[in-house]
């Protein structure tokens, strides 16, 4: 055992693999329930895209959360994990017909619609199926969250959502259609957001919009503000649970909900990010001309975030307590971006040492690929390794 890692159990497992601390996951879920539970009408959906490992999904479903899906595959995964369809929301800028049909067949809670063209298709397919689809419009609030450009989604230039200006037209259009029913508004401004002012800005935007809709006598049953709450990648041990208290309080304070209106959230990273680590083995230590490399058996195929977004993940040598060395920690993939960290200060490495790449529970295992014909990494929970 080193820190909270059962290294003795790890020694029998083939690397690389994801390890999930389910005790931390359960504590995180309990905190979300406690903090969201303080406010009337707050409902949390888990954004399946962050991690769809069935063992993780089961634990999340048990906590009572709904599911936020962005594909037919995610709807299937959530139903398989026991999420009830009336707690499933389905977003996505390009929904295929089979995916819409699946949502209709399962009678999901709501389709988050991203264009008028999509609304027409949902109406047509619902008519064929003899159903009425519940719809919310995803509005592009044109707010830039202070996060990485690739994960900002609420700007006018992004492909997501319907422009604020087209909002009323979209709602009026839905009223003309027989097989869709307008229920709510959906927003999502980006991911890994640490500054509560960004969420406050969203609240102000929604307040403006609601005032406008009220003047047009349009009633909105629910508001869905998406996800986006960030985690502390620098300090996974010190801050294992994100600031849910501040997060929900920001919405409670700044968003003017109308009587009876429900507020939905779609949290991904903040739910599962800190409970997961990618465990990998040092294959070789190589002294290059300018640098020392720790070459590990995990690559960007197992965890693409550093290569794709230059994301920081804390790296620990969990086999060795000795003095510290400086390494570029790199994988075996034939790409020069296959680097987990440059000049990382970690306990000195030798062949066979286990390395934990921390805060990898969200957008880790699920984004793994088989490039270079690699095997997909396994995922183990702390419960099954006892
Ligand atoms: N709702 C919508 C509509 C979304 O697009 C997303 C994430 C979420 C909810 C969940 O956001 P979260 O609570 O996890 O921030 N692969 C990137 C992150 C992409 C996020 C995409 N949308 C990464 O590894 O950082």
TrEMBL record:
GO biological process entries: lysine biosynthetic process via diaminopimelate
Reactions it catalyzes: meso-2,6-diaminopimelate + H(+) = L-lysine + CO2
InterPro entries the record matches: Ala_racemase/Decarboxylase_C, DAP_deCOOHase_LysA, De-COase2_C, De-COase2_N, De-COase2_pyr-phos_BS, Orn/DAP/Arg_de-COase, PLP-binding_barrel
Transmembrane region(s): none
Signal peptide annotation: none
Binding site for substrate: 269, 305, 309, 335, 363
Domain of life, per lineage: Bacteria
PROSITE patterns cross-referenced by the UniProt entry: ODR_DC_2_1
Example of a GO MF term: pyridoxal phosphate binding
Active site: 334 (proton donor)
Pfam family, one: Orn_DAP_Arg_deC
Binding site for pyridoxal 5'-phosphate: 228, 266-269, 363
Residues in Orn/DAP/Arg decarboxylase 2 N-terminal domain copies: 38-272
Known cofactor(s): pyridoxal 5'-phosphate
Sorted UniProt keywords: Amino-acid biosynthesis, Decarboxylase, Lyase, Lysine biosynthesis, Pyridoxal phosphate
Xref: SUPFAM superfamilies: Alanine racemase C-terminal domain-like, PLP-binding barrel
Enzyme class, first EC level, given as a word: lyase
Function field: Specifically catalyzes the decarboxylation of meso-diaminopimelate (meso-DAP) to L-lysine.
Family in the record: Belongs to the Orn/Lys/Arg decarboxylase class-II family. LysA subfamily.
Assembly and oligomerization: Homodimer.
NCBIfam families noted in UniProt: lysA
Protein name in the entry: Diaminopimelate decarboxylase
Species the sequence originates in: Marseilla massiliensis
Phylogenetic lineage: Bacteria, Pseudomonadati, Bacteroidota, Bacteroidia, Bacteroidales
């Amino acid at each position: 055992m080193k820190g909270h890692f059962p290294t003795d159990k790890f020694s029998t497992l083939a690397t690389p693999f994801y390890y999930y601390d389910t005790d931390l996951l359960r504590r995180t879920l309990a905190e979300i329930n406690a903090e969201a539970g303080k406010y009337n009408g707050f409902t949390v959906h888990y954004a399946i895209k962050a991690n769809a490992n069935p063992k993780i999904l089961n634990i999340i479903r048990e906590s009572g959360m709904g599911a936020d899906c962005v594909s037919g595959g995610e709807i299937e995964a959530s139903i398989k994990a026991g999420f009830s369809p009336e707690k499933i929301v389905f977003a996505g800028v390009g929904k295929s017909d089979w995916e819409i049909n699946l949502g209709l067949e399962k009678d999901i809670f709501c389709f988050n619609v991203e264009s008028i063209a999509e609304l027409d298709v949902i109406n047509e397919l619902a008519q064929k199926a003899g159903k009425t689809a519940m719809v919310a419009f995803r509005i592009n609030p044109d707010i830039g969250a202070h996060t990485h450009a690739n994960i900002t989604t609420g700007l006018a230039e992004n492909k997501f959502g319907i422009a604020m200006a087209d909002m009323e037209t979209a709602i009026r259009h839905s009223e003309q259609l027989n097989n869709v029913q307008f229920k709510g508004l959906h927003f999502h401004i980006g991911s890994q957001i640490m500054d509560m002012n960004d969420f406050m800005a969203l609240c102000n935007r929604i307040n403006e919009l609601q005032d406008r809709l009220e003047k047009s006598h349009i009633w909105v049953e629910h508001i869905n503000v998406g996800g986006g709450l960030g985690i502390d990648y620098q300090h996974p041990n010190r801050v294992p649970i994100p600031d849910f208290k501040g997060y929900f309080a920001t919405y409670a304070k700044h968003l003017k909900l109308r009587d009876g209106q429900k507020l939905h959230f779609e949290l991904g990273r903040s739910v599962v990010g800190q409970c997961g680590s990618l465990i990998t083995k040092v294959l070789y230590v190589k002294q290059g001309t300018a640098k020392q490399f720790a070459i590990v058996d995990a690559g960007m195929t197992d965890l693409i975030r550093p290569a794709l977004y230059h994301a920081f993940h804390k790296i620990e040598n969990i086999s060795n307590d000795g003095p510290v060395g400086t390494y570029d920690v790199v994988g075996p993939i034939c790409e020069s971006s296959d680097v987990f960290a440059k000049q990382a200060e970690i306990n000195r490495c030798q062949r066979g040492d286990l390395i934990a790449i921390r805060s990898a529970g969200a957008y880790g295992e699920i984004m793994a690929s088989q490039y270079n014909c690699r095997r997909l990494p396994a995922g183990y929970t702390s419960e099954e390794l006892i």
